[in-house]
Amino acid sequence: MRRAVVADGGPNSGGCLSTLERAYFIYKTMTREPEETVASKITRILAERIVSGALAPGEKLRQDHIAAEFGASHVPVREAFRRLEAQGLAVSEPRRGVRVAAFDPAEMREVAEMRSALEALALRHAVPHLTAAMLAEAERAADEADRCRDIRSWEAANRRFHRLLLAPCGMPRLLRAIDDLHAASARFLFGSSAAAWEPRVDVEHRAILAALRRGDADAACATLARHVKRIGPLPRRARAEQGGYPLFG
Question: What percent of the chain is helix, strand and coil (3-state, nearest 5)?
């Protein structure tokens, strides 16, 4: 395995870490701000509640209540609301305030298309930096996803599989955009399919890994693009009510 010179606490000094360890360091620094601001903390926690379904579509986000909960002024709460709107998790309505965004079938399809394009782009740039150890770690995440017995643990393992393959692209803005899209996918999944979800083996994860191991970047990217765009029908009742599709990739 190639070695990279990196700092004990960062990428630009002293100690020696493996390429996999360096990629993990980059992943951790990208996925959480070094010093989380109050607005960032509020955004993160509210986003988790929206994605999990703890805050339902259409539910009002009350600025006073949220400020009191976090012991904050209204300024970071308003900033958190703006960030949630940018992520598509909340909407601001005149004279009605800020509410949790409703499910939109067209948005589900848009998220699938965007993930397909952006994840394929990230993988294309990550391929030259992927090592056998990184692929082995991604395979362990795929194995974990296949063994999951509930939708939430499956989503976490599935997201980890994708992140492990894409993180070495070294494009933090692209990865942040993909993270936001994964959050949207998870929200659609939890809100639409939890009751109908069943454990399954994801053969496309194996196909992506196989293509990467034989050095076929084109096949890996094409399979990934198709994989994240693949969607399945909602349960009949939800399909009648919403007319949309949840994301499974």
Answer: 65, 5, 30
